[in-house]
Design goal:
Structural class: alpha/beta
Radius of gyration: 41 Å
Strand content: 15-25%
Shape: rod-shaped
Order of helices and strands: EHEHEHEHEHHHEHEEHEEHHEE
CATH superfamily of the largest domain: Histidine kinase-like ATPase, C-terminal domain
Bound molecules: adenosine-5'-triphosphate, magnesium ion
Distance between the termini: 50 Å
Number of helices: 11
Helix content: 55-70%
CATH architecture of the largest domain: 2-Layer Sandwich
Number of strands: 12
Length: 423
């Protein structure tokens, strides 16, 4: 490789000059000469030559092998030894520094030439291999992240489908249960009215002095008491009231399921985050209720331009993680607030916390500490992607082992990027 820049490290000046002359004859550039290891390292740092020719025994603190090691490690410069040492010990030491050649003095210039060419070629190849390794690693990372997104989307899509199906099935019967309860309430009212009229007539009849009628009215009154009709009329109202409330709750759950499943296809829009968070809470309530007391502190929020379904997905993942972190019974708190240029969604728990070691991995796809089949390790990586990449926001975590964890999501009010958001 003509024009290659070579550093000569040689403390015998005459030999160094001889090398320089011959290298130039071969078409190389003798870019610098050094007589000590320290000087060689300095020149390598300044000039970044393509190759170093290194004598092993050098005057000064560093011998050729030590110097070569540093030059290789710090500047990635290949080294060929030129030495008169043939003892095994030196050879073994030299090996460790991974030289590109070992030439015993005296040598033929042709030998030097072929060694230099081989070293330069091999070094170039090594570099290419390393470059393609980096490329491959990047591709692998990309593949991993795509796979994780697909998996999470698939998971969400199937939850959505299931939710939509269930919502549809429940909707019909809920329709007539609600309306029948309403009718029943009216009918009962009428029966009660009629009973009251009967009772009034009975008390009027009692006042008349007809012994036969007295007996009959007494019988009716006894039966009224025995059947506890007063209590029944009172209770039936409460029962129907309660059932209507229950029906209303089911209707709300169905509406939540529907909006959750619809949202899986929606784009960005101005959103009431508190409302979205509430319907997400309703969806995951079953996973939370046995584990934790949930405290909600919803602040007043302006409408936020975002992908509501994606934000719900993040909140869902954070809530489920919080519940999973609590072993027996604990507290989960969800808070929203509006702060200057962004809104904050905060989810904290009094669960097991995250160790220092795991903390740096939790946002990586497939990182999970949960058993096989329990966690895919995708929740937080998706949350990160959604908040950082899709909304230009931030997600931060604070955790203490044994005390609990707080996740904070910051969403900018004026998202950056084309059309405000990145789809
Ligand atoms: N609130 C939390 N408390 C303690 N550890 C947590 C909490 N949230 C997340 N982690 C840790 O981070 C890991 C990764 O969480 P992530 O949500 O990405 O995956 P996962 O919950 O394991 O699986 P899934 O894909 O089902 O969500 C968890 O396995 C857990 O170790
Ligand atoms: Mg999770």
């Amino acid at each position: 490789m003509e024009g290659a820049r070579i550093l000569i490290v040689e403390d015998t000046k005459v030999f160094a000059a001889y090398l320089k002359k011959n290298l130039e004859k071969l078409g190389y550039i003798a870019t610098a000469m050094a007589t000590t290891g320290e000087e060689a390292i300095e020149k390598a740092a300044q000039l970044h030559p393509d190759l170093a020719l290194m004598d092993i025994s050098l005057a000064g603190g560093l011998d050729g092998i030590e110097t070569a090691k540093q030059i290789r490690a710090r500047f990635d410069i290949p080294v060929i030894y030129l030495t008169s040492s043939t003892d095994m010990e030196t050879l073994e030491r030299a090996k460790i520094s991974e030289p590109f050649g070992y030439i015993i003095k005296p040598f033929d210039i042709k030998v030097l030439h072929t060694n230099i060419e081989m070293a330069l070629y091999k070094h170039q190849m090594d570099r290419q291999v390393r470059k393609s390794e980096v490329g491959l690693r990047e591709t692998l990372d990309q593949l991993k992240s795509t796979q994780s997104q697909l998996l999470q989307q698939e998971k969400l899509a199937s939850i959505g489908q299931l939710a939509a199906g269930v919502a549809h099935e429940i909707n019909n019967p809920m329709g007539y249960i609600g309306s029948n309860l309403g009718t029943l309430q009216k009918y009962i009212g009428k029966i009660q009215q009629h009973d009251q009229i009967g009772l009034d007539i009975m008390s009027k009849l009692k006042k008349l002095d007809y012994p036969e009628v007295q007996g009959l009215t007494q019988e009716i009154e006894n039966s009224h008491k025995q059947l506890k009709l007063d209590f029944i009329f009172e209770d039936v109202g409460a029962l129907i009231e309660e059932s209507l409330e229950g029906a209303d709750r089911v209707r709300k759950i169905v509406a939540d399921l529907k909006s959750f499943s619809h949202q899986a296809e929606e784009g960005s829009k101005e959103t009431d985050l508190n409302k979205g968070i509430q319907s997400t809470i309703n969806i995951v309530w079953n996973e939370l209720k046995y584990k934790a007391n949930l405290t909600k502190e919803f602040g007043e929020l302006p409408p936020v331009l975002c992908y509501p379904q994606k934000i719900n997905q993040v909140v869902m993942n954070l809530l489920v993680n919080a519940a999973h972190a609590i072993e027996n019974q604990g507290e989960i708190r969800i808070k929203t607030a509006s702060e200057n240029s962004h809104v904050l969604i905060e989810v904290s728990d009094t669960g097991c916390g995250i160790s220092e070691e795991n903390l740096s991995h939790i946002f990586e796809p497939f990182f999970t500490t949960k058993g096989v089949g329990k966690g895919t390790g995708l929740g937080l990586s998706m949350a990160y992607d959604i908040i950082h990449n899709k909304h230009g926001g931030e997600i931060k975590v604070d955790s203490r082992v044994g005390e609990g964890t707080t996740f904070r999501v910051y969403l900018p009010l004026t998202p950056k990027g084309e059309n405000g958001l990145h789809g």
